[in-house]
Amino acid sequence: MSRIAALVTAILVPFAPFAGAAERDLASDTLARSLPPPASPATDRFALRASYYRGSVDTQVRIDADALTPGTLVDAEETLGLDDAVDQGRMELYLRMGQRFRLRFDYFKLNRYAATVLDEDLVFGDEIFLTGENIESSLDYRSLSFTFLYSFLRRENFEVAAGLGVNLLEAEAAGEAVDRNAREEESGVAPLPTLALDGSWRFARRWSVNARGQYFSATYDDIDGTLSEWHLDVQYRWKPNLAIGLGYTLLDVDVNIDPNADHDFPGLFRLQTDGPELFIRASF
Fold first, then answer.
1. Residue 178 zone, left/alpha/beta (φ > 0; ψ -120 to 50; rest)
2. What's the pLDDT score for residue 27?
3. What would you report as the CA-atom Rg of the chain, rounded to the nearest whole angstrom?
4. Region at 262 (left for phi over 0; alpha for psi -120 to 50; beta for the rest)
5. Residue 149's closest CA among 137, 162, 136?
6. Distance between CA 93 and CA 95 in Å, rounded?
7. Which of 170, 188, 182, 237 is nearest to 208 (CA)?
8. Which residues contact 31 (CB under 8 A, 6 or more apart)?
9. Please, what are the averages of pLDDT over each run of 10 residues along the chain (284 residues)?
């Protein structure tokens, strides 16, 4: 019997390294299957993003006194001297509900102030500002967006969603002739719905590319409104719950309100801003 055991041992000894390698490979495969998939925007259940935005701005405003007294269409940067480049902070929140439904909350504001001497007459609501007057002006814009998304394509490293958004836009414009204390100020709120599309792709263990867009154009309740926003970014997952990224955003808002309508802001407001974003994103 001992001779048989010795013979079997002699036969198996040359294959021992291969058997050990096979056991190690099996253990490695088992461990890989037991590890959770790499974190990415396609698997995050909650995310909060804080961005620094450096954008160029082009704004046009018209404040009508009434239907018979239209205001002057003003290029806010060229005529009023408002900054045409801004440094802004921006916040965004994602919340996943179940596997395929998400909510996105986004807040953006842009407040500017300038003082200049007019080189043309301006009809600004009920006031007329004259050439050569010292004018102080401010223009504030704020938007709060709620977007509901459904992921019709979803994999471990890939997700595409479509949905509907509601955007609450608020604009406030003010002008004052300093030497004679003549001031005009108007503000208004306009709700604009949008169609939205959102996509994420984790193309490497720590890297992902993400894009989204929303658009709508319609006339309702004496408001002729168009809103479009497009965003593209690349993210690096520095830690499992922390990512940094660089992106680019374009926002285009055009709201024209009938001066005969019962709205606080009769006239026209157009805003276009675009530029790069640097952000940090916390998620789990």
1. alpha
2. 45
3. 29
4. beta
5. 162
6. 7
7. 237
8. none
9. 49 47 48 62 94 96 82 94 94 95 95 95 92 96 96 94 94 93 87 93 96 90 86 96 97 84 74 97 95
- Whether 124 and 136 have beta carbons less than 8 Å apart is answered as no
Give the position of tokens 């407001």.
Answer: 269
Prediction pTM value: 0.81
Local structure of residue 12 (DSSP, 8 states): H
Where are the strands (E) in the chain, listed by range? 46-63, 74-75, 85-97, 101-117, 122-124, 127-129, 134-154, 158-177, 182-201, 207-220, 223-239, 242-257, 267-283
The reported pLDDT for the residue numbered 53 is: 96
Both tokens of residue 143?
A: 């938007």
Pairing assessment for the beta strands 46-63 and 74-75 based on DSSP bridges: antiparallel
Kind of pairing, strands 46-63 and 122-124? Answer: unpaired
User: Which residue ranges form the domains of the chain, and what is each CATH number?
Assistant: 2-31 (no CATH), 36-283 (2.40.128.90)
C-beta separation of 210 from 199 below 8 A: yes
> How high is the pLDDT of residue 38?
75
Give residue for tokens 């709201």.
255
Q: DSSP secondary-structure letter at 13?
A: G
**Total residue count of the chain as it appears in this document:** 284
Looking at residue 139, its pLDDT comes to 95
